[in-house]
Structures are given as C-alpha cells and as structure tokens.
Design goal:
This protein is α/β, with parallel strands linked by helices and 334 residues long. The chain has two domains: 211 residues, P-loop containing nucleotide triphosphate hydrolases (Rossmann fold); 74 residues, no CATH class. Helix content is 33%, strand content 22%. It has eleven helices and twelve strands. The strands form two sheets. Strands 6-7-8-3-9-10-12-11 form an eight-stranded mixed β-sheet, with helices on both faces.
C-alpha cells in the first residue's frame, strides 16, 4: 500500500474569544461577585483522523461551517491543532527540528478560495511568485527571471504580464497566479480550499483541467476541499464527508456516489442536479446545521436525520467499515 504523505490522528480545533484588558477586568469582577463566567468555545473540528496517500486526490465535502477549511489550514501548517497530531511522512510536524519543519511546511502548500483576497495587491506578480523560492534559496543566482517565467507558463499565464499587479487580472488569472505561487516552492502536496468556487463555470473547467495536468506532470497529491459534489466526483480518488466537525463517511469516489451509506451523504447526493432527474422535485435537508458553539449530543446529524433513534441522541457513532475501504459513522450499521 502506498505510504501516506499526510495523516491526521485525533485532530481537534477549538476557537475561543480573545479578551482585551477591559473584558478581563469585567470577567474578574463578575467572578468576585459570585457570577458564572464561561467562555464560548467553537468546536470547529472534533477528533478527526484522516490519511492522504502519495498520488491521491482526496475530496473533502460538507456544508459551510462543517470544519473542512479548518482541516485544510491545519494540514498546510497555517493553524496548529488544539489536540491530536498532524503527521508528515510518518513524523509529527510539531516535534520536528526547525530545518525539518521548514521543509515540511514548504512541501505542503495551499490554494485559497478567494483569488482576490489571497494575493497582496501591493506586489507585482513576479514578486508574488518569486518571493518564497528566493527566500528559501531554491533559485540559482542569476536565474530568477527564468524561474518565475517557467512557473507562470506552467500555470497557464503569459510571463509578459509578470510586472502587473493583481488588480489587473481576471478572477481565473488570479487563481492561476495563486497556483504558480504555490508550485514555485516545489511542493508535493496541495490543499485546494474551494479553489474554483469563486470562478465562472467555463473558467472552473479550465482550472480543474490544469489541476489534473499538474498532478500528472509533478506527481502531486491533493486534498481537494469543496461543497460541489460534481467537481469532487470528477477529480477525486477518494471522498471524505464531514458534518459539524466530524467525519461521517469515507470511501472511494465510485463507491460513495453509487452506494452512499450515511443518511447525510445520501441527502447530499439526492440534491445534486442531474440530466436524467431534471423532472423530479429536489427536497433540501430539513432543518439548519446546529451551532458549533453548542453541538447536539450523540450523533451531530440526529436533529435533521429522518432515521434518528434513541441511540443517536445519546451516543456518538464511530466510523466502522461497511464494505472494503468504505467506512461510515451511523448507528444504523450496528
């Protein structure tokens, strides 16, 4: 079996409110007066374990607010987990020496959702793409211009425009600049966080084809985060479904789309528009996604699940194998 590039082991991420001096003084006064002072904690990711193997494209899917972008940021080293470990080639990134940690950080790069906000508007394209490889000594002296031109060409941009600023490009071109910037430090793993969501449909197709071409050319591994199941089906080897900070189902892409097991996955797939089902009515998942400030006990999906039973309200289901390579977290399987 191909060894993993990235492995998450029991990873959780919590966010709490940051208090200024006035807030801290007020809270101390309330405590002194016998008041109940509690911090509100957002549980963005809750005990997630995930393996991404060399050469795979893993699609990470879920509704907005389920924690998939937070996972992407922890994988890319932008955020540290509150609990658990992020393993890179068998070693915990948090325990690596500084040089090895820097190498691991360069090996995993992220492409962001918003091509407008992810680029520094004060920098020219040649500086955006060339800054990191020059800082890390990846470009031989005197070959900076040729190296930057090669990165832009590979991402589908004309190097003649490298002296321009980001505001002089379209959304699709800006996303290509982001791709060139990520690839300039020669990573082996890309985290694509809704990388085509903000683009026109025709441009989406071009960027998706570029991702697949780069995968073949550079032997890349992807964690592809998206809420678009059509895109995930087209790109992914394996699909992971998240709901409110937890993984609820994981299987090869063909298996997920042919034999979804978890009620949440089934509900998501039933809402995907297809040509052969254009005459039927689509029924949205009932209810709203609960707040991560106060997630429901047991299975987080039970308030919206048509099959919920007593065990669902009391005990969180564990991921268990329901078919070879297919795991699902649902009490219906037990």
């Amino acid at each position: 079996m191909t060894p993993p590039v990235i492995e998450l082991r029991g990873v959780s991420k919590r966010f709490g409110k940051t208090h200024d001096a006035a807030s801290r003084a007020t809270r101390a006064l309330r405590r002194a007066m016998g008041g109940n002072v509690q911090d509100q904690i957002v549980r963005a990711v809750d005990d997630v374990s995930l393996v991404v193997r060399k050469g795979e494209v893993v699609g990470l899917v879920g509704e907005s607010g389920c924690g998939k972008s937070t996972i992407g940021r922890m994988v890319a080293g932008i955020m540290a987990p509150s609990d658990g470990q992020v393993i890179y080639h068998g070693k915990d990134i948090a325990t690596l020496p500084l040089d090895a940690m820097r190498k691991a950080t360069l090996g995993v790069q992220m492409i962001f959702q918003d091509p407008y906000a992810s680029l520094n508007p004060r920098m020219r394209v040649e500086d955006i793409v060339g800054e990191a490889p020059m800082v890390h000594g990846m470009i031989p002296r005197g070959q900076e211009a040729a190296y930057i031109d090669a990165q832009l060409t590979r991402a589908g941009l004309d190097p003649a425009y490298k002296r321009r600023y980001p505001h002089q490009f379209s959304g699709g071109q800006r996303q290509r600049i982001g791709i060139a910037r990520a690839l300039a430090v020669q990573p082996e793993f890309l985290v694509c966080d809704e990388a085509v969501a903000a683009l026109d449909v025709s441009i989406q197709a071009q960027i998706l084809n570029l991702f697949m071409d780069l995968r073949e050319q550079l032997d890349l591994t992807y964690l592809f985060i998206s809420h678009d199941l059509g895109v995930v089906e087209h790109l992914s080897d394996r699909v992971v479904i998240m709901y409110l900070g937890r993984i609820v189902e994981e299987a090869p892409a063909e298996e997920i789309f042919a034999r979804a097991n978890h009620p949440y996955t089934q509900a998501l797939l039933s809402e995907v528009p297809r040509i052969d089902t254009r005459k039927r009515e689509f029924t949205a998942i009932k209810g709203e996604i609960p707040s991560p400030l106060n997630p429901p006990p047991g299975c987080h999906f039970h308030p919206r699940c048509p099959h919920a039973m007593a065990a669902c309200r009391e005990q969180a289901p564990v991921l268990r194998e329901v078919a070879p390579g297919h795991r699902s977290a649902c009490h219906l399987n037990g």
